[in-house]
């Protein structure tokens, strides 16, 4: 029969984020119905009577908060159990699963506890926290770390140790060190990956003999990452977790007890989730759990979950604008540093520091799914807008369409798509969303694409993929797809013609072809390589006469074994282009490949290349170094005087024009890395 729900107990046997992610993805791939609940042990603490928090289980909760945003219709919630489970605990667990009202719950022998965000108290005793001695700042040369380093010196640190992977080679590191020294501090800038335990241990060992052991640490290292849940690969997750999770774990293990401060920079993504950032949210939730465990053991620890910083941090440009539209404007760095000092003055364990426009944020946060997390924030007013619950009737859209003509259906669904897109982007009216302009050109990214998908799922009752916006790239195309799904009418040629992206620029690209490493011979193969995240690096080709068995016994020597290669580069049909075998042998493979892809590019535009003979068609080629001539040297009898024209960069464009019979301009551009861009610009200028 139909699955009513799924309760996963994997975490009770030690499964972490990787296993939880695989399970969620697998259930989605199999289209398993019913809501998914994830049961953990030790992910949260409800008071002093609780055992120490398990940061690995806490990370699973961070992942779950993102699932709730990306797949709200299928997500049930998170339930944490005590160390000892009795029949009363099981009954309470069943009650939580049956009610479905709360989605973040801790079941204990003393009762059932729910998760709420509350304002930090202003009436607590402040201790006037000051730093002294040596302060270690990981990620210390980055945007956040540099501001923290300046604050540390102002707060009394006599010696600041700044770590980053690049050390003094990091942009701005030297200037930062000079500013800190001018403020009276000793400064050490170290190239140290804190996720590398041995490297971190060596750095800390170097401080001890100098009489400068670290008395405080601020862990600000981290790497942002955005990928929708279904697209995250097993290889991606460790990379996202590495800097924050491994680095924090090593610091916790290697630094001595009795620190003045152990501060970790977490994120709001770990507190309430962030669509498209499952791994990042899990990593930050791990940090929160680690600090809770340190506090339970009597050690210093403060986790600061930051919102976006203005001009710095993990969010930039358009992303900051989108966050602001959702009620999360960027904070001024000076205000953020003041809040950090306040958290240490209050001796907080975990604190969220963000500039939140609560009514706007609550509307966005609860748009797809009601959440009681914000119930204790008076300004939030968390009335769900279009929430996916029993009151939502997605089938109503289909019934409305039943009484309309096809043209009316198109108009209704287009209005629906534009209205929801405007709501996601924060526009006042749907008129701000052009029907024929690509979503990506209007500011959509993986996060906002998921939000639009969720809204349309709620409105239509359809099960829509997270790639919806990318599969149907304009409002017109998406509306046509929705009509096909809701009415069972396939998108016909006329509809497909309507959904083509229209641009104001009269010059458009109508044909493409390529040859790239990784076995990419077509644009479809290129998209597949990118979409699947495969690597284009491969072993040396066997048909180039290279010695692949290099002597590895030479000291201080290393040899590459792989690279990015275009295979079958020698498989050139010279006769097809009217070129003799001797001349073809003298031609740089780049000339041969250019002839092939030029023919394919014209064909992909639906044009027979032979019909363009004698027409004013221009050829603009971007090219740089050619090294084939040195290989062909000494083979004069075989190449028969064709070596010069076969290897001159300037001949590239002329070769195509001559072979195809084009009579427009033929220009080869060499501006190094920008050659192709300049060639494209010149081609557009020529058309104008």
TrEMBL record:
Example of a GO biological process term: fatty acid biosynthetic process
Domain Carrier: 411-486
SMART domains: PKS_KR, PKS_KS, PKS_PP, PKS_PP_betabranch
Pfam families in the record: ketoacyl-synt, KR, PP-binding
Keyword DNA damage recorded: no
Designated name of the protein: Phosphopantetheine attachment site
Keywords: Phosphopantetheine, Phosphoprotein, Transferase
The UniProt record lists the keyword Phosphoprotein: yes
Extent of the signal sequence: none
Gene Ontology terms, MF aspect: 3-oxoacyl-[acyl-carrier-protein] synthase activity; fatty acid synthase activity; phosphopantetheine binding
Positions of the Ketosynthase family 3 (KS3) domain: 504-688
Stored InterPro entries: ACP-like_sf, Ketoacyl_synth_AS, Ketoacyl_synth_N, KR_dom, NAD(P)-bd_dom_sf, PKS_Beta-ketoAc_synthase_dom, PKS_KR, PKS_NRPS_Biosynth_Enz
């Amino acid at each position: 029969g139909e699955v009513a729900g799924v309760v996963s107990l994997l975490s009770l046997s030690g499964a972490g984020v990787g296993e939880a992610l695989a399970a969620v993805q697998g259930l989605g791939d199999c289209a398993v119905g019913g809501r998914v609940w994830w049961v953990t042990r030790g992910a949260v603490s409800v008071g002093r009577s609780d055992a120490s928090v398990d940061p690995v289980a806490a990370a699973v909760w961070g992942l779950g908060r993102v699932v709730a945003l990306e797949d709200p219709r299928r997500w049930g919630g998170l339930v944490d159990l005590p160390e000892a489970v009795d029949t009363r605990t099981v009954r309470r667990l069943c009650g939580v699963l049956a009610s479905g009202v709360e989605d973040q719950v801790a079941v204990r022998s003393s009762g059932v506890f729910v998760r709420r965000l509350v304002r930090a108290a202003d009436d607590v005793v402040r201790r006037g926290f000051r730093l002294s001695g040596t302060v270690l700042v990981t990620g210390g040369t980055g945007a956040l770390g540099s501001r923290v380093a300046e604050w540390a010196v102002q707060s009394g640190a006599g010696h600041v140790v700044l770590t980053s992977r690049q050390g003094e080679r990091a942009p701005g590191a030297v200037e930062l060190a000079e500013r800190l020294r001018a403020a009276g501090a000793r400064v050490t800038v170290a190239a140290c990956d804190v996720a590398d335990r041995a490297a971190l241990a060596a750095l800390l060992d170097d401080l001890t003999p100098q009489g400068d052991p670290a008395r405080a640490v601020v862990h600000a290292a981290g790497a942002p990452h955005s990928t929708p849940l279904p697209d995250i690969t097993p290889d991606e997750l460790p990379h996202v977790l590495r800097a924050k999770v491994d680095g924090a774990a090593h610091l916790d293990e290697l630094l001595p007890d009795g620190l003045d401060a152990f501060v970790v920079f977490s994120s709001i993504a770990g507190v309430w989730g962030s669509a498209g950032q499952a791994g990042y949210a899990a990593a930050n939730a791990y940090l929160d759990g680690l600090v809770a465990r340190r506090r339970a053991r009597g050690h210093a620890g403060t986790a600061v979950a930051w919102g976006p910083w203005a001009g710095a941090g993990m969010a930039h440009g358009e992303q900051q604008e989108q966050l602001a539209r959702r009620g999360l404007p960027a904070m001024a760095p000076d205000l953020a540093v003041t809040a950090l000092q306040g958290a240490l003055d209050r001796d907080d364990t975990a604190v969220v520091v963000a500039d939140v426009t609560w009514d706007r944020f609550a509307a966005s946060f609860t748009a797809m799914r009601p959440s009681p997390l914000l119930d204790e924030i008076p300004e939030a007013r968390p009335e769900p807008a279009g929430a996916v619950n029993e009151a939502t009737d997605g089938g109503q859209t289909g019934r409305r369409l039943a009484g309309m003509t096809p043209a009316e259906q198109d108009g209704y669904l287009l209005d629906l798509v534009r209205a929801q897109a405007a709501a996601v982007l924060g526009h006042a009216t749907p008129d701000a969303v052009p029907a024929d302009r690509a979503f990506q050109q209007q500011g959509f990214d993986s996060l906002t694409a998921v939000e639009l998908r969720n809204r349309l799922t709620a409105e239509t009752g359809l099960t829509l993929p997270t790639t919806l916006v990318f599969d149907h790239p304009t409002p017109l195309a998406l509306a046509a797809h929705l009509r096909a799904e809701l009415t069972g009418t396939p998108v016909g040629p006329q509809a497909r013609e309507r959904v083509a992206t229209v641009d104001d620029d009269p010059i458009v690209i109508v044909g493409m072809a390529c040859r790239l490493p990784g076995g990419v011979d077509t644009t479809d193969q290129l998209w597949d390589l990118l979409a699947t995240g495969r690597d284009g690096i491969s072993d040396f080709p066997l048909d180039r006469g290279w010695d692949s068995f290099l002597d590895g016994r030479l000291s201080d020597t290393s040899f590459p074994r792989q690279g990015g290669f275009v295979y079958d580069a020698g498989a050139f049909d010279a006769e097809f282009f009217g070129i003799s075998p001797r001349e073809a042998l003298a031609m740089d493979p780049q000339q041969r490949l250019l002839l092939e892809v030029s023919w394919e590019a014209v064909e992909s535009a639906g044009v027979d290349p032979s019909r363009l003979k004698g027409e004013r068609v221009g050829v603009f080629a971007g090219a740089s170094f050619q090294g084939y001539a040195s290989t062909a040297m000494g083979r004069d009898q075989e190449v028969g005087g064709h070596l010069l024209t076969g290897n001159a960069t300037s001949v590239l464009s002329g070769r195509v024009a001559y072979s195809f019979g084009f009579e427009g301009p033929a220009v080869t551009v060499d501006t190094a890395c920008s050659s192709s861009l300049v060639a494209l610009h010149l081609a557009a200028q020529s058309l104008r």
